[in-house]
Amino acid sequence: MSKLFLDFDGTLVDVSERFYRIFSDFLKLKGILDVPEKDEYRKLKRRLVYDPEIFKFLGLRIEWEEYRKWKWENVEDPGYLLFDTPLCDIRDLVCKLRDKGYQVYVLTARRKPRNFWEELRRLKLHDLFDDVFITGDYSLDSKRRMIEDIVEPEDIIVGDSEMEIHAARSLGIRHMGVATGLRSADFLVEKGAELVLRDVTVLLKLL
């Protein structure tokens, strides 16, 4: 049975509110009141990708290491994780993918496994997947390393970032991008994606 590795953030759940809150809360703590609205931030994030570029575009003199520390301390904080919301009926999606003959796995880049499992329980997804793989770090190669010992040529990896593209290319398996995360379809194509889906539910039509 073929394995389908699904990224979590930006693929199964919308993380834009969480990332925006972290961004805007930091600016407010620094006394910056003219904070972009969420829609503007999302557009900037998809166009410029990296936060230092967003600060530069907005004309903000923010010390990158200070913000980086703040973001790392908060991005997996349970309070901020509450802002994540499902992008579709995830349980229904997984059941239908299984009906098509796939084992369905989550492959996520998170540093705090306990907080991730708490999020899965909150979303009532903790018992859904065939297995859950948590990288423990955010490095580009982390997802490739996590599954390299179990992956087979017919397997597929799906996600919204360059990490899944890198893993697929390195492992010689199929990759499908999704345009629901904080990376634009153009960015994914630039990084080597051959196919970018409108959202993860399109898999049901393609597989």
Provide a quick synopsis of the model.
By secondary structure, the protein is of the alpha/beta class.
How would you describe the overall organization of this protein?
It is a single chain. This protein has about 210 residues and is an alpha/beta fold. It folds into two domains: about 1-15 and about 85-205, Rossmann fold (3-Layer(aba) Sandwich), CATH 3.40.50.1000; about 15-80. Helix content is about 45%, strand content about 15%. The chain has helices at about 15-30, 40-50, 50-60, 65-75, 80, 90-100, 115-120, 140-145, 160-170, 185-190, 205, and strands spanning about 1-5, 15, 85, 100-110, 130-135, 155-160, 175-180, 195. The strands form two sheets. A six-stranded parallel β-sheet has the order 5-4-1-6-7-8, with helices on both faces. A two-stranded antiparallel sheet has the order 2-3. Helix 9 (about 160-170) links the parallel strand 6 and strand 7 (about 175-180).
